[in-house]
Fold this protein.
Amino acid sequence: MINTKKIAAILLAAGLTCNPYNIPSATLIHAEEATIYEQASVVSIDNLDEYNTKASISWSCELMFPEDMHKEVSDYASFTLKKDSIVKIGGKYTVIGNNFSTSPDVIIYSNEARTVKKLEVSFSDSKTVYLPAGTYYIEAKDKRLLNPGVKIDISICALSANKALSAVSNQDKNKSKATVTVTQALGADIENIQYVYGAYGEKDNTNKKIWKTPVSKGSNLYYSHIATEVASGNTFTVKKNGTYTIRVITKDGAAYSIQHKVKGLDNTAPQITGVKNGKTYKKAVTIRFSDKGSGIKSAKLNGKTIASGKKVSKKGKYTLKVTDKANNIKTVKFKIKK
């Protein structure tokens, strides 16, 4: 006979650790002997910034041998993410009683009917996944339980996504380039960090036309496509204003990205008045130039340095080259013919 169903919640032990993610203490959910779909409990991963503990939430359940051996044995619980999060999930199972074979499945769904699968939990390695804020359902089941029972333990660590990855940029003194420094809180779980120019969202995280993607070739794994890898030190240098999308890939293939805007760089060439490119003049001209971005670095007329306000009256061919401190160059070729 099946034991009476019971659901009990106890406080998670204070010392439980699931590095490297920082989340608060939560409750331990324990559900026994579920032979029908019945919710064990609801827990909340409250990953707000003011918390700074290292703990996980855990869910345990026991799937017991049913009276009808053809009946699927299952149980489920739910958890709620208050923020978009990087979630790390791991699991193990222990056979209860005689050591007969069993093959339990643990799957996370995004809907209570458990029809939209988000992740299948491995019993050997942890799995990392990006999950938007919302409620998710963990289902443990065994379609043909061949032993008295199986105990399943699941651990979940979550890190608020806006803390998982961030970036700051600093201009050089001439405003010619900016160094972008990436900070990531996923530690050793990171496989690589990439960036690409343009504003791309979460739906683009696996777009092969934007990002490098892992490709298997025999027993080797290599990367292809067009994204740029962030070098050691987690920094990269850009020379163009605009939005850059930065993506991290975890060792188990989860991808998450943020957008970072670089501004303040001088991408504009100096302004020149008094002469225009390709024009011929029949009288003297006065050359003036300026730069509102980084300032003028040099101005040369036929190779000789000149100052703004230079008057030119001698007939001939002229090439004016003005460079600002960000190394933007404006070139004007003109003639004076009397």
User: Anything to note?
Assistant: The first strand starts at residue 6 and ends at 11.
